[in-house]
Write a structure and sequence with these properties.
It holds the Pfam family CsbD. InterPro entries: CsbD, YjbJ_sf. This is CsbD-like domain-containing protein. It is built from two helices and no strands. It is mainly α. The protein has one domain. The longest helix is centred in the last third of the chain and has 27 residues.
């Protein structure tokens, strides 16, 4: 169960991060763009955590 939960959270953060990046670029707001990049990276790490849990059987 943890694997899917982490992957879902990761995907949600990646999507939100991409939206923030696009909004920051269109509004010429570097801080919003940077926040979006950070959120996207967080999502990538959550997704990776989910993959590791899947490989190890949720023992992580």
């Amino acid at each position: 169960m943890g694997e899917l939960k982490d992957k879902a959270k990761g995907l949600a953060n990646e999507i939100a991060g991409n939206i923030k990046q696009a909004a920051g670029q269109s509004r010429n707001d570097p801080s919003l763009e940077a926040e979006g990049k950070a959120q996207e990276k967080k999502g990538e790490m959550q997704n990776l955590k989910g993959k590791v849990k899947g490989a190890l059987g949720d023992k992580v």
